[in-house]
Amino acid sequence: MSTFYERWLGGRQGALGLLVLSLLIFAILPLFLDIFRLNLVGKYLTYAFAAVSLVLLWGHGGILSLGQGVFFGLGGYCMAMFLKLEASDPISTAKQTTPGIPDFMDWNQVTQLPLFWVPFHSLTFAIIAIFVVPAIFAYIIGAAMFKRRVGGVYFAIITQAVAAILTILIVGQQGFTGGINGITDLKTMHGWDINTNSAKYILYYVNGLLLIGVILLSKFVMTSKFGRLLLAMRDKEDRVRFSGYDVANYKIFIFALAAVISAIGGAMFTLQVGFMSPSFVGIVPSIEMVILAAVGGRMSLIGAVYGALLVNYGKTAFSESFPQLWLFLMGGLFIAVVMFFPNGLAGLYQTYVKPHVDGFLDKVGIGGKKKAAVAKVTAPAVAEKEEAAK
Amino acid sequence: MLLGYSWSDWGSILVMQGFAGLSLFSVLLLMALGLAIIFGQMGVINMAHGEFMTIGAYTIYVISKVTEQYFPAFMPYYFVVAIFAAFAIAFIVGYFVEFILIRHLYKRPLDTLLATWGLSLIMQQIFRSTFGGREVSPTLPDWLMGSWSPTPSIDIPINGLFVMAITILVTAAVIISLYKSRWGLKVRATTQNRMMAGAVGINTQKVDRMTFAVGCGVAGVAGAAFTTIASTGPTSGSLYIVDTFLVVVFGGAASLLGTVASAFSISQAQSILTFFMTNAMGKVVTLLTIIVILMLRPEGLFASKVRK
């Protein structure tokens, strides 16, 4: 129990953070928001998957991927393909020239279901694909890059190019992918209507549970020996290599893990929003995912969730009423986070709020003497690292 | 006889497609030259580089409109003046951006990426608020229009030739100033070893600021060239930014010769592939090829042999 508390929950502070987050997701938000707004929050939380994956990859691994949208999209498209096939059964598509294939294929004069679509008739296959496809894709990119010791800036630029390529491909191959509109009009999942309010509630809760699960998994990874190696690799890669570790393999693993986490987010996005399009794959959404992690605090998993919620809420609120102001704000936010709050919201919490919380908890006598044994990488450590870099 | 074209048709297609590639090459190279200075020499990842290009393009647009309105007699000559103005304005903006933003981030290259992305969003919105969301084009002087036909089946647009001339001039100027001038010596000294450069009396802060501003200025000239080929919108710059980075990385970040070679091969490949496939697929194949080559040669085509 004690190792569970220390390692998985991250001691008193970590447990408190998780508790507050769970209360917010599972109790407070559903109580105060109507289903339309709650569905929006659910959408924001799917981006949080990508942000959490970037905390692992970028904050802890020092690998900046500007292509998380690729994996988010792969997950989303795998799910969307299954739902689309179910929505285009021969009866409801009877009016088409070729009944039984998705409508956009029919519009594009495709007369037979493409081969790679066929297995997506099965939900089991689709769910496995959500995990396996991004993992394989990430393995290929990661192996090609990290084995050749491509890293840092170069890796970021190349992942960006991959995002560009995938977007162009999806948009260009309209008959197979639905083109720029994406895969729309998704209705049921195994006969279960995903557009009803009750389904939206259920999906929101499933999404929340998955997110908490992913955070716990990431905490486990970070506090394991592998997690310590990851930090070591970020700070002094050569020393880790000279100590006999195969740095490339560790990097490939964390890249693939981050890809799968993003893909789960993408799949949940498709389920909750009811469509998937290339506008979630490209360079712009990928960079926005990085900013979610940066605003939340690149070292903090829970911070990433708050980052995703706040930035996306701001985006919705401002782009509804002041569309011009939003781009200014977003740009200003990027610059401000980089220049003034390199540790984001989590850093602000560490500096200003945590001492008070600690004092209060000590007073009440919760988890007092036992300080978290797991070395927490906090604001000063990152600052030191940045000083040391170069 | 191939695909129903005669040999002479093939010759013309090759020349014209190759020339289309050369126009793309000119804009890409001008963009990449600026970036090769900023990213290759200084190590700053400037995601707002495309917006500096857009600044240049809008400068040409504004000057063309002003000339048309108030000095119609000056129309045939304004373009040459406007190119210098495009350089100057992008230079000045770059100078201030370095002062306000970039100089605080030299030790954190990945963070410059995020900060300059933010900057590019802000600049795009400024363009949109000032010039509107629609694409605009300057009124080009008459001598830039039309085309030159050495044979009946070959048409070569004059503006393409003009852009190529600018490109050659700017490339020569950049190479000379980086490798033959005192300023270039200071730039290279500063970027290779900032501490030591400072110790021998180089004002490294000033050198950094000038270097960054010159890189932005060259992007402004790229924008001037861009207006002769396509119309300008608030997001024009962002269309080229990934390509430009790939050009610089593919050529080997610190090598100007590599930048020229990679801009040439990428634009030619893209232009010729576009003829055989759809536009999108041509681009996909080009980008994929670059990535695969980069996996084999991570330092780029012309890696400088420097120990890190």
UniProtKB/TrEMBL annotation, chain A:
One of its GO terms (cellular component) is plasma membrane. It is a multi-pass membrane protein. Pfam families: BPD_transp_2 (PF02653). Keywords: Cell membrane, Membrane, Transmembrane, Transmembrane helix. It is found in: Cell inner membrane. The keyword Transmembrane helix applies. The chain crosses the membrane at residues 15-33, 45-67, 115-141, 153-172, 202-227, 248-269, 289-313, 325-345. The lineage of its organism: Bacteria, Pseudomonadati, Pseudomonadota, Gammaproteobacteria, Chromatiales. The keyword Cell membrane applies. Its main location: membrane. It comes from the Bacteria. One of its GO terms (molecular function) is branched-chain amino acid transmembrane transporter activity. It comes from Halothiobacillus diazotrophicus. This is Urea ABC transporter permease subunit UrtC.
